[in-house]
Amino acid sequence: MEYTKTNAETIDRWIDEGWEWGVPIDHETYLQALDGNWQIKLTPIKPVPRRWCGDLRGKRVLGLAAGGGQQMPILTAAGAICTVLDYSEKQLESEQLVASQEGYEIDIVRADMTKLFPFADSTFDLIVHPVSNCYIRDVTHVWAECARVLKPGGLLLAGLDNGFNYLFFDEDESHVTGSLPFDPLEDPAKMAMLQKEDAGVQFSHSIEEQIGGQLRAGFRLLDVYDDTNGSGFLCEHGVPCFWATLARLYKPTSPIGGPGHSDRLSTCRDEQDPFFVKE
Ligand SMILES: C[S@@+](CC[C@H](N)C(=O)[O-])C[C@H]1O[C@@H](n2cnc3c(N)ncnc32)[C@H](O)[C@@H]1O
Predict the structure, then answer these.
(1) 245-276: pLDDT as tens digits
(2) CATH number, residue 43
(3) Mutate to test the pocket of ligand 1, among 16, 46, 91 (most ligand atoms within 8 A of CB)
(4) Which atom belonging to ligand 1 lies closest to the Cα atom of 91?
(5) CA 12 to ligand 1 centroid distance, Å
(6) How far does residue 65's CA lie from ligand 1's centre (Å)?
(7) Strand, coil or helix: what is 222?
(8) Which of 30, 55, 159, 243 has the least C-beta neighbours within 10 A?
(9) Ligand 1 atom, smallest distance to 8 CA
(10) Which residues line ligand 1 (CB under 6 A)?
(11) How many domains does the chain have?
(12) Would residue 278 count as lying in a domain?
């Protein structure tokens, strides 16, 4: 079986067991969001700064691997037109449940993010991608597909696992038991560690893959913050195991090297960017 299918089945099982990232928001939280009181997360603890999302009214938002009824209902309440892509049937069921209960429309798409995304070029204004690419091996593909389906100047908000957690597989996290990179498809001992914990098939990714990959796909980094696991030994020692990034897509106005191409790839002017700092 493809490892991504194994992960989808594993996550469905975790949801039955009450997995935190599969618990949809409640009615009161949705009502608060309609009133303008809301936050979303990309990583375990810290909320995304509201300025990262800007004015969402009428914006087309893709929740990439964001099923579960956590981010999408909030962004819908804030005025966005949302599409969610996820590979877990249960996460998508929760997404539909919240939408039906609260009476809004959402496009729900079951797809594997390791394949071509089932959307036309330049469809979305904003992509919200909570921590999830630890469940796939090649993140370069994801950044390329994000760049394809975003409109020029579109924003990518991503939660990223920086791999530190894969060093600590013992119960109290106080000893290094693993090594990086963590690729269970290359190393049967690592696969055995995951299987022992019913942890699906997970991968570490370096800063080169996570942030370098975004930059090489045509994104420009606008802001960043780090976050912890929220509990446990590493958290108590302030180890930031996660990063969140805000990046803007700069698409060429004409093909690179073609007539009219300039090295300034921007179709949106730096000066218009709320994060732009003049040097
Ligand atoms: C930590 S959860 C993130 C969603 C959650 N709503 C949140 O608040 O963080 C990770 C998500 O990635 C999804 N996922 C894992 N592998 C995937 C794949 N290959 N394609 C699409 N989604 C995937 C899972 O089904 C799960 O919903």
Answers:
(1) 999 999 765 555 555 544 444 444 455 555 54
(2) 3.40.50.150
(3) 91
(4) 27
(5) 11
(6) 4
(7) strand
(8) 55
(9) 25
(10) 4, 7, 11, 21, 65-68, 70-71, 86-88, 91, 112-114, 130-132, 135-136
(11) 1
(12) no
Surface-to-core class of residue 64, CB atoms within 10 Å of its CB (0-12 exposed, 13-18 middle, 19+ buried): buried
Full-model pTM: 0.92
Q: How many C-beta neighbours within 10 Å does residue 156 have? A: 26
pLDDT in tens, 139-179: 999 999 999 999 999 999 999 999 999 998 777 778 888 89
The tokens describing 154, both together, are 């579109």
Smallest CA-to-CA distance from 108 within 160, 73, 154 is with 73
Name the residue with the closest Cα to ligand 1, atom 17: 87
Q: Is-contact 29 101, C-beta < 8 A?
A: no
Comparing CA positions, the residue from 201, 160, 208, 207 lying closest to residue 182 is: 201
DSSP output for 25-59? PPHHHHHHHHTT----BSSSSPBPPGGGT---TT-
With respect to residue 279, please indicate whether it lies within any of the assigned structural domains: no
Q: Which atom of ligand 1 is nearest to the CA of 113?
A: 20
Range of the structural domain that residue 143 is part of: 3-272
Residue nearest to atom 19 of ligand 1 (CA): 112
Residue 255 belongs to some domain of the structure: yes
Residue 143 lies in a domain: yes
Report CA(67)–ligand 1 centroid distance (Å).
6
